[in-house]
Design goal:
This protein is of the alpha+beta class. It has helices spanning 3-11, 35-46, 53-59, 65-77, and strands at 20-22, 27-29, 81-84, 88-91. Helix content is 44%, strand content 15%.
Length: 93
């Protein structure tokens, strides 16, 4: 695991429910964070329900779509998430 993944694992010890606001049709992370951290907080908010790539793109709509896709790929590579775009993703941490 590289340093970015290690720091991300350390970061995700914070309870996600207090950092994510649920607006019904969208979830918003309420703190400034890196895209990797934002995506992990969203996955923790939804846990144990798998989250589709489309839902993650919708919830992270303030970021470029390519950024969200790249983060999903990186977290999957680092084995911090498991799943696929059809069935959805869940955190492994």
């Amino acid at each position: 695991m590289d340093m970015a993944a290690a720091s991300l694992v350390e970061f995700i010890q914070v309870p996600a429910t207090s950092l994510v606001e649920d607006f019904g049709d969208k979830r918003l992370v309420l703190m400034e964070s890196r895209a990797e951290e934002e995506l992990m907080m969203l996955l923790f908010h939804y846990y144990p329900v798998p989250v589709s790539a489309a839902r993650l793109h919708q919830d992270m709509d303030r970021r470029a779509s390519s950024t969200v896709s790249n983060v999903i790929t990186a977290l999957y590579k680092w084995r911090l998430i498991e799943g696929n775009k059809d069935k959805g993703y869940k955190s492994t941490a």
